[in-house]
């Protein structure tokens, strides 16, 4: 399994290292061969393309032209293929157990094989693409070479043709010259014109035979000339043909190039898709390709449909035009008919008017006639009455005056009647005149009517003519339109059949595509199911592997714990054998401040092979010191802590441990014990390690941790965690009768976690007295004592342990004259030195195994009595400076360290209750 993953990682790394392949060089037509199988599926009607690509392959170009990239891919793929085949064989049980073991013991999971198979197929595809690109480049260059060769040939041919034409033309010219000369001679012979000088040849003798010969020669020359001309025409035709051929070739080349370009673009597109779709599976890519082709086909289908629609509209167009024309004609005819109707109506109106007038006139004439007749009758009647009048007159003459009067009256009446008659006659005359006038009007009207009628007839004829003309036009138009539409329809039908044929050819492709698409879809669906199943299986296997691993890890954990306990036991033995007081020395590096001040010369050197000895030089004398461990200036805080970690952790087992940093002021004591926020020192790391160990022992032991921080400043104990840090505290014997010391009123905080501890430590640091001296700009002017008391209870046995860890950052020893201390600072320095002296004395006494150890000489030694005495573990971290200017202090510190080194505290002892048993 490991080998498998390594291989996979190698391939991925190799791919990433190589980056994306360079863009393909100009490609040739062999891009067709990139995916022959797919093309064969999609374009079965193009077998020649496939065959060409096949022939290319047969020629062995594929094998020969494998470039560096494909070689690299093959390099990458070959072991993978071998590995997979081996795995498969192993899975089928063909492989011997040794081989199976060589493969990593376990057989790979099926999803992994499938994933690798996909990767393989991708690699194969990738390699194939590379090869195809190279082949394309090759083919393209071949094509270019061929084109150049053909052009050259063509140029040469053209030149040769031109040369030949030139020759022939010059020959014709010369022949023409000869002909012209002969003609001149002939003309001269015939006496048409005097012989003209011919520069080409002298005139032949003028005889009839000569003339005949000349004529013959002229005709022969003319025949030759004609032949030459024919030849020239042939040559010209050849030239034209050659030109045509060239153009055709150029056109075909252009087409080929165009086609190739298209193919190249297609290939590039495909390549791009391949490149971008590195993570996409082959089936998805195929689906994508098919979808794109499907889209193209759909588009062509829609185009065809559009064409069909267009055809339908085009076929509908002539009939629409005809209908339109028809409509126009119809409206025109209607217009003419309405105008005719109007005219007819007008005519009828006029006729009506005329007849009405005539009737009226006739009526009037009739009335007048009647009146005239009446009047004539009346006149006649009057004229027929004279005898009466005469009678009356006679009677008047005879009879009386009355009768006379009546006669007169009758005469008057007669006169009146005559007048009336006259007037009637006049009137009659007038009426006759009127009648005549009206008869004239009537005649005029009649003329008008007849004119109207003529006009109407004319209009009617015109209309009929026009209608017939229009109908003829209409027929013609209809005929024309039908012919045109038929032609159009024919064309459209042809197009339609073409389209249908194309559709028919496309249909199986589309069908095939659809089936392949659906099969691909189902494959993809199946693949996703298969993939999910594979993932499920892989998860299940992972879970089982994880559970196996967790069981194994539990086992390992148990073993580890056991080992740790053993290691601790042996370490404790070792420490006991070594002695329970250990002296470590840390060299402070030359700081930037020192460099700025120009203090770079050192007085301390270490031996390359040894990590426990160093040599100090002072006043020309060198002295070598042997200590438990020397930390070089470049040693890290972690390295320092790792050295004392076991001692620290032994507190949990009930040991009292004291770690104190000793050294001149500014030598790095506080740095080593407290550290800096970004790189904490022993204090924080010790507490962290204790908590980690407590967590690891959870369930076995129960621990409680309490913390107190004191400072001894000017021989006064101060509680740095108390509410009143300035309050003086004292050291007393514990009233519980255990004989141990205790500080009444000292704040001991039971802490639950590291965060609380950090808070307490920062509070203590804030409350600690520090001032600036010549030696250190933030010098600790007191001894700081961090005491961690850990009481533990064994959950199964009930054994109780109590361990104490004292982490002491001593105040810096200093030479008063050098530090420039005065007043309060001087007093501080004196107290510091006094307490350090007391510490020296205590160690001296311990070393001398004196019965009395002067612990009470200083508050520091008194307070550390529990941790410095017999049966305790002590670590002194001596801090020294490398610089020559501090060589005196360095020598003092090292001498003190050497003294401590010789102290024997005896075997360390655990603080366990009376019923407890040792656990180690
Ligand atoms: N190993 C070291 N690596 C880097 N810097 C250090 C190292 N040791 C000490 N220093 C730097 O030297 C300076 C003095 O160190 P520090 O205050 O720890 O000295 P000190 O011995 O505690 O002095 P004092 O006794 O006066 O308190 C500090 O700025 C500290 O960061």
Estimated structural class: alpha+beta
- Radius of gyration, rounded? 70 Å
**What percentage of residues falls in helices of 4 or more residues?**
55-70%
Distance from first to last alpha carbon:
41 Å
CATH topology of the largest domain: the name is Kinesin
The H-level CATH homologous superfamily of the largest domain, spelled out, is Kinesin motor domain
The CATH architecture category of the largest domain equals 3-Layer(aba) Sandwich
Low-confidence stretches: 18-74, 94-109, 192-207, 387-399, 914-920
How much strand?
A: 5-15%
The unique ligands bound to this protein are: adenosine-5'-triphosphate
Describe the structure.
With 920 residues, this protein is α+β, with helices and mostly antiparallel strands. It folds into three domains: 2-279; 290-558, Orthogonal Bundle (Helix Hairpins); 579-901, Kinesin motor domain (Kinesin, 3-Layer(aba) Sandwich). The chain contains 21 helices and 19 strands. The strands form five sheets. Strands 1, 5, 6, 9, 10, 11, 14, 17, 18 and 19 form a ten-stranded mixed beta sheet that branches. It has a three-stranded antiparallel beta sheet with strand order 2-3-4, with helices on one face. It has a two-stranded antiparallel ribbon with strand order 7-8. α9 packs antiparallel against α11. The longest helix is centred in the middle third of the chain and has 178 residues, at 401-578. The two termini are 41 Å apart. Mean pLDDT is 73; it is low at 18-74, 94-109, 192-207, 387-399 and 914-920. The structure holds adenosine-5'-triphosphate. Residues 588-589, 591, 663, 665-671, 776, 778-780, 811-812, 879 line the site of adenosine-5'-triphosphate (ATP). Adenosine-5'-triphosphate is lined by residues 588-589, 591, 663, 665-671, 776, 778-780, 811-812, 879.
């Amino acid at each position: 399994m490991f080998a498998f993953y390594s291989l996979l990682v190698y391939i991925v790394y190799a791919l990433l290292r190589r980056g994306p392949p360079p863009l393909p060089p100009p490609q040739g037509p062999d891009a067709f061969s990139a995916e022959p199988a797919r093309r064969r599926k999609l374009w079965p009607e193009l077998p020649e393309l496939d065959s060409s690509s096949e022939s290319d392959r047969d020629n062995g170009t594929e094998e020969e032209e494998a470039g560096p990239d494909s070689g690299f891919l093959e390099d990458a793929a070959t072991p993978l293929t071998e590995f997979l085949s081996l795995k498969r064989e192993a899975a089928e049980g063909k492989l011997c157990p040794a081989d199976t073991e060589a493969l990593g013991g376990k057989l790979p999971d099926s999803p992994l094989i499938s994933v690798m198979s996909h990767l393989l197929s991708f690699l194969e595809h990738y390699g194939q693409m590379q090869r195809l690109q190279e082949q394309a480049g090759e083919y393209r260059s071949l094509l270019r070479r061929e084109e150049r060769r053909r052009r050259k040939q063509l140029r040469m041919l053209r030149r040769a043709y031109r040369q030949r034409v030139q020759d022939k033309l010059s020959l014709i010219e010369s022949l023409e010259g000869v002909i012209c000369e002969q003609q001149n001679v002939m003309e001269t012979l015939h006496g048409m014109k005097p012989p003209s000088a011919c520069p080409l040849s002298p005139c032949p003798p003028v005889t009839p035979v000569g003339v005949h010969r000349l004529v013959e020669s002229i005709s022969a020359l003319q025949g030759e000339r004609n032949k030459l001309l024919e030849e020239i025409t042939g040559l010209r035709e050849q030239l034209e043909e050659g030109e045509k051929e060239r153009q055709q070739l150029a056109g075909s080349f252009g087409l080929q190039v165009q086609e190739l370009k298209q193919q190249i673009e297609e290939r590039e597109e495909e390549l791009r898709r391949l490149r971008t779709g590195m993570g996409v599976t082959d089936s998805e890519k195929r689906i994508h390709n098919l979808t794109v082709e499907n889209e193209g086909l759909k588009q062509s289908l829609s185009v065809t449909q559009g064409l069909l629609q267009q055809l339908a509209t085009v076929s509908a167009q002539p009939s629409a035009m005809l209908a339109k024309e028809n409509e126009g004609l119809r409206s025109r005819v209607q217009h003419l008919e309405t105008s005719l109707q109007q005219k007819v109506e007008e005519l009828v109106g006029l006729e009506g008017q005329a007849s009405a007038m005539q009737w009226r006139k006739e009526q009037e004439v009739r009335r007048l006639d009647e009146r005239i007749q009446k009047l004539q009758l009346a006149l006649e009647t009057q004229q027929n009455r004279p005898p009466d009048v005469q009678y009356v007159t006679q009677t008047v003459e005879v009879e009386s005056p009355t009768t006379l009067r009546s006669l007169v009256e009758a005469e008057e009446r007669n006169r009146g009647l005559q007048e009336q008659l006259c007037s009637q006659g006049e009137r009659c005359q007038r009426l006759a005149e009127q009648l005549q006038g009206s008869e004239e009007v009537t005649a005029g009207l009649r003329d008008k009517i007849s004119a109207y009628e003529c006009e109407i007839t004319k209009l009617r004829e015109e209309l009929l003519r026009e209608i017939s003309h229009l109908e003829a036009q209409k027929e013609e138009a209809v005929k024309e339109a039908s012919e045109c539409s038929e032609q159009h329809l024919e064309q459209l039908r042809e197009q339609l059949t073409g389209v249908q044929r194309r559709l028919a050819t496309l249909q199986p492709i589309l069908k095939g595509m659809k089936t392949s698409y659906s099969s691909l879809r189902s494959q993809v669906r199946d693949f996703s199911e298969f993939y999910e199943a594979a993932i499920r299986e892989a998860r299940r296997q992972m879970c089982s592997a994880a559970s196996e691993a967790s069981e194994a890890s539990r086992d390992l954990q148990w073993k580890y714990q056991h080992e740790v306990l053993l290691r601790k036991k042996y370490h404790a033995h070792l420490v006991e054998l070594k002695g329970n007081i250990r002296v470590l020395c840390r060299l402070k590096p030359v700081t930037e401040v020192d460099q700025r001040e120009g203090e770079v010369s050192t007085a301390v050197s270490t031996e390359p092979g040894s990590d426990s000895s160093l040599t100090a030089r002072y006043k020309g004398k060198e002295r070598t010191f042997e200590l438990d461990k020397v930390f070089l200036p470049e040693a890290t805080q972690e390295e320092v802590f790792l050295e004392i970690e076991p001692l620290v952790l032994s507190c949990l087992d009930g040991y009292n441990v004291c770690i104190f940093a000793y050294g001149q002021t500014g030598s790095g004591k506080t740095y080593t014990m407290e550290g800096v926020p970004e790189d904490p020192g022993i204090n924080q790391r010790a507490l962290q390690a204790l908590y980690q160990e407590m967590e690891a022992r959870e369930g076995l032991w129960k621990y409680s941790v309490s913390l107190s921080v004191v400072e001894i400043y000017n021989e006064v104990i101060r509680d740095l965690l108390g509410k009143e840090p300035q309050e003086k505290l004292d050291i007393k014997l514990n009233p519980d009768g255990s004989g141990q010391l205790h500080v009444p009123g000292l704040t001991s905080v039971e802490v639950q976690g590291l965060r609380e501890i950090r808070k307490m430590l920062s509070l203590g640091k804030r409350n600690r007295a520090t001032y600036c001296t010549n030696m250190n700009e933030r010098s600790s002017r007191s001894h700081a004592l961090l005491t961690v008391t850990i009481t533990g209870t064994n959950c199964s046995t009930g054994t109780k342990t109590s361990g104490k860890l004292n982490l002491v950052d001593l105040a810096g020893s200093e030479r008063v004259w050098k530090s420039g201390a005065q007043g309060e600072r001087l007093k501080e320095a004196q107290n510091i030195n006094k307490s350090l002296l007391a510490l020296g004395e205590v160690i001296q006494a311990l070393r001398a195994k004196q019965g009395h150890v002067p612990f009470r000489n200083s508050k520091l030694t008194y307070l550390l009595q529990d941790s410095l005495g017999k049966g305790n573990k002590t670590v002194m971290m001596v801090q020294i400076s490398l610089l020559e200017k501090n060589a005196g202090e360095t020598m003092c510190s090292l001498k003190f360290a050497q003294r401590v080194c010789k102290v024997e505290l005896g075997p360390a002892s655990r603080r366990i209750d009376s019923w407890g048993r040792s656990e180690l």
